[in-house]
Design a protein that fits this description.
The chain is of the alpha+beta class. The chain is built from 28 helices and 18 strands. Helix 18 crosses helix 20 (about 420-465).
Length: about 750
């Protein structure tokens, strides 16, 4: 397990803009960065990244979070894996404590599969460079292919010995799970139950995720085997539809150059990289998929497909064009002279020759498709008409209407047809494409509904078998509130759709809903502003004041997750005092350094009396103090969020990320000024209003319960109930009066 001190170093070092930039092409917009969301099919930039808060968020699908949370989601990693990834990225040495047997059992199977693949990659590399068989066969082959030692190292190429169980024996000796060796596709068993290595006698091409984790392998035989290449099978960590070969090595160059070259195989990528073209990736022999395109589009909109000059290569080029156009990418096609492929072309030409060939022969998709399809069609009107229809259908795939119209005009000039015929045909195809898309979306929606229904049925069965679970903590004022979870958010771009509740779950009453909303508003201020001052003159923070109020009234949050957040905030506040002291020490050093520089610069150029110099020095001091005022305020405000948004508990991270950019309908006073900068006056008004509304709601619930009980109570019990109702009513009036005095009209806060 990673020790806490190391986790703190990782969180401090991780720059959210830097982390997200590995996956998304970001553009500066004001104080934020924006880009296309990597978590859904985003057509307009809706993914915002805020460096000062260390936070990213998609305003369409709602995904995002801290650097840790972002890496967990985009790479499908566990919490420890994401921390290790960031530690490696920022060159932080991980200090781990010995894990217990229980903790070891809790490690995810996926994490174990990545570990086994890492072991296998190291084994193959060692065999390539250190065994005689690897040197004589594997390394000789790579060098014959023209791969340099640097390329062999960068792509972690290896060799699997031509021995039935070399890898299996090494893995078992190292203590790895044999069943997982089967699941990742490294080993297998024959009909007699004997183990064998699937990649034996082959040179190895490791396949990486975007972050550089080994997800699968490709192996090329050097013998007369039936299958020239074999790949790892689909698994919990490897999905061919989502995996792009060479992306880990090419992603930064693609984003930097704003252009991507797509080739077919492993050797094509390596040779192009070696020739100086490091923005090259491959689909590893599989057809281009939507998932591939979404990944590419987050890095660049400019794509050039490189294909062999043979008939198969040309057909593959045509097939992939429409899918790329549909995602609003700028597509060009480059067909290499026969019999060249990208591997041989890169090996046989210099970088300048390759660049010149690309510049001279790169074609727009219409020119390419027209040249290919209209070839030898001049005397066949039917074939010519079909070729033109195919080109127009490609144009119809373009989402942007202006771009579509421009290409329509190109088609008018190229095919010598009237504009009305071209435009009408494109729009007809456009309608067909929309209908096809709608049908596909409906099928996917129904499948999601079916999956949700199955999960609900499974949950119902689980509840019936296991009972109601652990009892909730004692609610305040003996109010009986059913188990609840925090409210679910609805994407901002979609209207809220009422979802029927599962049969095993009761809908909360109006009182319960009001109580949940009040608790949410209280806990959100503790998370967002917990370390900020609510009473500036007393140096009292939001956490300190809320803790005192809640403790004095013996309140508890009825929602377990909120109660957990409350406790976590209190624990973090004890850490904050030490961390803030260290932070202020560094701030004072920076202030002193800046103040000294300004004074020296002023004194060296100013001639005047002592009083004037002293006045200027005082102004400089005030100016320096003002420069760091916002930095200090942001440190206070972001401390709780920074730590909880990277908490190992999934539920904690989710609710904290939601609180940072809430989508719930808050009360009017909170909704109007929630996003404004909070000084102590505003904070006092809002936090106290939320707290008092919570208390009033609890009293209302208690009074309602007592009134219900009164209807069936005995005479003696009725007197007791009426007395309690009177006491609560009196307290409610006093609290309502106090609430009215504390709640400040938002119009008067400016």
């Amino acid at each position: 397990m990673i020790d806490r001190q190391t986790v703190e170093k990782i969180l401090d070092a991780a720059d959210i803009v830097d982390v997200v930039s590995d996956y998304v092409a970001l553009k500066k917009r004001g104080a934020n960065w924006v880009g296309l969301c990597p978590f859904h099919n985003d057509r307009k930039p809706s993914f915002y990244v805020t460096r000062t808060k260390g936070f990213c968020k998609c305003f369409s699908c709602g995904e995002g979070g801290s650097p840790v949370n972002f890496i967990m989601k985009i790479e499908n990693m566990s919490y420890p894996e994401a921390l290790r990834y960031l530690a490696k990225k920022y060159h932080i040495e991980i200090q781990e404590k010995e894990i217990t047997d229980e903790e070891r059992q809790q490690q995810s199977e996926q994490e174990s599969m990545f570990v086994i693949n890492e072991f296998a990659m190291n084994f193959f590399e060692k065999q390539l460079h250190e065994s005689q068989e690897g040197l004589d066969i594997g390394l000789s082959y790579f060098r014959e292919r023209g791969f340099s030692d640097e390329s062999i190292h960068n792509f972690h190429l290896g060799y699997s010995p031509d021995k039935p169980t070399a890898l299996h024996e090494a893995a078992v000796k190292a203590g790895y799970n044999e069943e997982l060796l089967i699941k990742v596709g490294l080993c297998g068993k024959d009909d007699r139950g004997h183990w064998y290595d699937k990649f034996k006698g082959r040179v190895i091409f490791p396949i990486f995720t975007k972050s550089g984790k080994v997800v699968a392998f490709g192996g090329r035989t050097l013998h007369n085997h039936h299958a020239k290449y074999i790949n790892s099978p689909e698994s919990a960590i490897y999905h061919k539809r989502k995996t792009i070969y060479g992306l880990a090595q090419a992603k930064r160059e693609i984003a930097k150059l704003d252009k991507c070259f797509i080739v077919e195989g492993y050797a094509d990528v390596i040779s192009m990289h070696q020739a100086g073209f490091k923005n090259v990736i491959a689909t590893s022999g599989t057809a281009l998929t939507k998932e591939h395109i979404y990944t590419i589009r987050n890095l660049t909109n400019n794509v050039t497909e490189l294909f062999d000059g043979d008939e198969a290569g040309i057909k593959a080029a045509i097939k992939g064009v429409d899918m790329l156009l549909k995602q609003d990418l700028n597509i060009k096609v480059l067909v290499l002279p026969s019999p060249e492929d990208p591997d041989s072309f890169a090996q046989n030409h210099s970088a300048s020759e390759i660049t010149d060939y690309i510049n001279q022969n790169e074609q727009d998709f219409i020119d390419f498709k027209t040249d290919v399809l209209l070839k030898d069609c001049e005397r066949d009107p039917i074939a010519r008409a079909k070729a033109i229809e195919s080109v127009l259908r490609s144009v119809a795939n373009i989402p942007n209407q202006i771009t579509r119209n421009v290409y329509a005009q190109v088609c008018v000039n190229k095919f010598h047809l009237s504009e009305s015929v071209i435009v009408n045909q494109i729009e007809r195809y456009r309608a067909q494409i929309k209908e096809e898309d709608w049908k596909n979306e409906e099928r996917e929606r129904k499948q999601r509904e079916l999956d949700t229904k199955r999960k609900a049925e499974a949950a119902t069965t689980a509840v019936e078998v296991s009972g109601q679970g652990d009892p909730l903590p004692p609610p305040p004022f003996d109010v009986n509130i059913p188990p609840a979870s925090y409210p679910q958010e609805v994407p901002a771009t979609q209207p809220p759709v009422p979802q029927p509740a599962p049969s095993f779950q009761q809908q909360p009453s109006a009182h319960e809903s009001a109580l949940q909303k009040c608790e949410y508003e209280v806990i959100q201020y503790m998370v967002k502003y917990g370390c900020s001052f609510i009473f500036e003159y007393e140096q009292l923070t939001v956490i300190e004041w809320l803790t005192k109020e809640i403790t004095d009234d013996n309140h508890r949050f009825t929602i377990p997750l909120y109660q957990k957040l409350y406790k976590l905030c209190q624990e973090l506040f004890s850490d904050f005092t030490v961390a803030f002291s260290n932070f202020m020490q560094s701030v004072e050093e920076k202030k002193h350094q800046l103040y000294t520089q300004e004074i020296e610069q002023f004194r060296s150029s100013f001639e005047g009396n002592v009083a004037e110099i002293e006045r200027k020095e005082e102004e400089a001091k005030q100016s320096v103090d003002a420069q760091f005022e916002n930095e200090i305020s942001e440190y206070r405000q972001n401390f709780i969020f920074k730590h909880l948004s990277s908490h190992p508990d999934d539920d904690v991270r989710e609710i904290v990320n939601e609180i940072c950019l809430p989508k719930h309908s808050l009360s009017k006073i909170h909704a109007e000024i929630f996003s404004q900068h909070m000084d102590s006056q505003r904070l006092l008004a809002l936090v106290s209003a939320s707290l008092f509304n919570w208390k009033l709601t609890i009293i209302e619930i208690k009074i309602s319960q007592l009134e219900t009980e009164l209807k069936s109570a005995t005479i003696d019990r009725q007197f007791e109930i009426l007395k309690k109702i009177q006491e609560l009513t009196t307290y409610r009036k006093e609290l309502a009066k106090l609430t009215g005095e504390r709640v400040v009209n938002p119009k008067n806060l400016n």
